[in-house]
Amino acid sequence: MWATAVGVARVRALESEQENALFRDPLARAFAAAGGLWSSPPQLPDDEAARRRWLGVAFSIVIRTKFLDDLLEQASASGVRQVVLLGAGMDSRAFRMDWPEGMRLFEVDTVAPLDFKASVLRQERAVARCERITVPVDLRDDWPGALAAAGHDAAAPTVWIAEGLLIYLPEDAVELLLARIGARSAIGSRMGLTLGSRGVIERFGADAVPGSPASMWVSEMPDDPVGWLAGHGWEADCHTVRERAAVYGRPISTPPQHPEGPGGLVSAVRR
Asked: What is the reported pTM?
């Protein structure tokens, strides 16, 4: 699945080249190139429906990146000094964001993507702007134990980020992940999640190419994500991509093709 993270890096690289970019990710192009996914201009699918889907996914990646950047900035401004990126992939926030003194950022992922990432970081001579700690472990294994061994302090507030992750996990794995996060979250911890919107698997997965990201999507958001997260001890706010895009000056001009329920961009606080 980590090849998907290289595809996300490609989208972030394309956004970073825009004059009015919502963020700048100077490492994204290097990740995409090292993964064989850089071409300029990008090669879009020939099929019109497939092209629209690709552009829609790319747009949502840009909006969710900005959304989670803002969440992290707000969390650090509130005094949180620990960040945990679950399924970190090619995330370069340790290198591209301005962090306060004392910030510790843990990147949790399997060995293969972390090794690939390390090779690119060495090539680019990238220097982290905070204390960056990699935690090579599969999320199906005892990642809380590995995180603790790496120095994470469960008694201090943490901001947790699960970006583009939960849609790939079956429901029982999602529940376990939330329970494990909660067990290591002090009062005042924050969490940023992206959830698959209702019906997205049906719309994108029906003719998904085997091995493509959409072919591996298995989990959508519950009908009441705020109530669901309250049951896990979190006070949550949910936003749609359309709502956030308008706030960021990227309004979607076309009306929604499907009824829009609760949004899949989630910010939450541990009370």
From this structure: 0.93
